[in-house]
Amino acid sequence: MTKYIPTAGQTVGPFYNYALMRDGENDLTGGGKASGETVVIEGRVTEGSGAPVRDVLLEIWQANSHGRYNHPADDSDRGLDENFRGFGRTLSDEDGCFRFVTIKPGAVPAEGAGGSSVGESAAGGRTGGGNVWQAPHIAISIFASGLTRRLVTRLYFPGEDANATDPALSGIPEGDRERLIAKPGDGGGEKSIRFDIVLQGEGETPFFEE
Amino acid sequence: MTDDIEYRDYAKGAQPPYLTPNYKSTKVRSPNKPQYKLPRTLTEATGPVFTQDDVPADEWDLSTSATGETALGQLMFMDGVITDEDGRPMANTLIEIWQANAAGRYAHAVDTRDAPLDPNFTGAGRIVTGEDGHYRFKTIRPGAYPVPNYENYWRPPHIHISLFGRSFMSRMITQCYFPGDPLNDECHILQGIPEAVARDRLVMKFDPSVGVNGHALGYRLDLVLRGRRATPMVG
Ligand SMILES: [Fe+2]
Questions:
Q1: What is the pLDDT of residue A128?
Q2: What are the two backbone dihedrals, phi and then psi, of residue B58, each rounded to the nearest 5 degrees?
């Protein structure tokens, strides 16, 4: 019997951008069409020497403002938004800096299945239907030259009560946990947050097993 | 749930560790700390959905320029099937490839070495698989290229591959290589994978049956993305 073992990863290398990058893919709102609160995410990627890393491929994946993923495995009754796919891509510039424009995702259930929706009355407790709910968050994939395969992390939002009970955050020791919570940004009028990524060393970003 | 899929951890020896000392830049880019366990949630069980309408039909052919000219080099087909860990064909999977030209140069602003560019070759292609999980690209065999910061070290001819699969958990990027090339044994990136059988799975098989007689060589590479049914089918 043939065994099907997942294919090994290999570095994305330095020369991918003409193949993978397309204009506008760092704006998940489709130029403001998606419903929900627009948020600008800015950050910088640095390596162990403290130097910025250019040409890092960053991909984000998230639920819409109702907490619904645009994917068949999310068959909940939380509302779909036809203007929001939930996937974005960008790459860091010469200074290691990157930028996404998206909407703030709603809360989603913690378990793998679709789960029940957040009822009106459950909005505070986030335990509707016996499910644990995750704090609003964005999943991040990181690929770069010098990374043999994908690194995975998550971005959480500042000032969220639900951060205290989020199952993924709770698995990270205090002191490290805060590094996954974005800082308020300096984007003026728009809602703006800052999420720096340190690949190695002092202030290293917590990463998750793939 | 339409389909209850289980995502097991990657087998360690079948994937390259982040720190691979012979591959120098991993020394400052690999995390020092071990990775935390991530609960498997709806976030990981979902991911961007693609359909065949997302990609123009002519992007499977890298060997023909926009004006219909043929790229320089050895014409070849790269052909295979993408499956999950149950061997089930992976439909609606976006596969993106990119590569150097026949002289070993990328059509990329950062690649400034003195090998010629080919005006008829950009070296990027995309397709989305159909129900049978099959993919097929027409391209030219890429050249080897030297890597700065090493002493007389060349990357073996290779093609970069980006794959999405059915969820965030199956997202991966890899490279594939050509059978019998002596540079494969010297490659810090390929040799960074601990298990020989896992390295071999990234080496394409020469297979005339997927080539075209008198026109182009054929190489075969099957790819397996993570994920399997949580409950095996009985019988
Ligand atoms: Fe390459």
A1: 40
A2: -85, 0
Nearest to B83 among A4, A73, A167 (CB): A4
| C-beta separation of B178 from B190 below 8 A | no
The tokens 């890597």 sit on which residue? B147
Point out the residue among A62, A115, A206 whose CB comes nearest to the CB of B36.
Answer: A206
The first and second tokens of residue B192, run together, are: 């960074």
Q: How far is A188 from chain B (nearest CA, A)?
A: 30
The answer to whether residues A156 and A182 touch, using CB atoms and an 8 Å cutoff, is yes
Q: Which residues contact A3 (CB under 8 A, 6 or more apart)?
A: none
Residue A13 CA to ligand 1 center (angstroms) comes to 6
Residue ranges and CATH numbers for the domains of chain B are 41-224 (2.60.130.10)
Residue A110 confidence class, pLDDT cut points 50, 70, 90: confident
3-state SS, residue B42: helix
For Cα atoms B93, A25, B77, give the angle at the middle one, nearest 5 degrees: 40
Which of chain B's residues have a Cβ under 8 Å away from the Cβ of A209? 9, 35-38
Q: Which residue of B has its CA nearest to A105?
A: B43
Instruction: Tell me the per-residue pLDDT of A56-72, one tens digit each, with 9 for 90 and over.
Output: 999 999 999 999 999 99
Residue B28 alpha carbon to ligand 1 centre in Å = 20
Q: What is the mean pLDDT of each run of 10 residues along chain B (235 residues)?
A: 79 95 97 95 95 95 96 98 97 97 94 93 97 98 94 96 96 98 98 98 98 98 94 60
Q: In what helix (H) or strand (E) does residue B200 lie, and over which residues does it extend? A: helix B196-200
Q: Which of A4, A110, A145 sits opposite B86 (nearest CB)?
A: A4
Q: Which of A184, A181, A175 is nearest to A163 (CA)?
A: A181
Q: Which of B87, B233, B227 is nearest to B171 (CA)?
A: B227
Q: What is the ipTM of this complex?
A: 0.96
Q: Do residue B15 and residue A149 have CB atoms under 8 angstroms apart?
A: yes
User: Which domains, ranges and CATH numbers included, belong to chain A?
Assistant: 17-198 (2.60.130.10)
Enumerate the active-site residues of B: 106, 145, 155, 158, 160
Q: Is the dihedral of CA A69, A150, B169, A4 positive or negative?
A: positive
Q: Which of B1, B15, B30, B46 should be substituted to probe chain A, the one whose Cβ sees the most A Cβ atoms within 10 Å?
A: B46
The answer to whether the Cβ–Cβ distance between A10 and B189 falls below 8 Å is: yes
Residue A40 tokens read as: 């600008």
Query: Cβ separation of A11 and B175 shorter than 8 Å?
Result: yes
Position B1 scores a pLDDT of 46
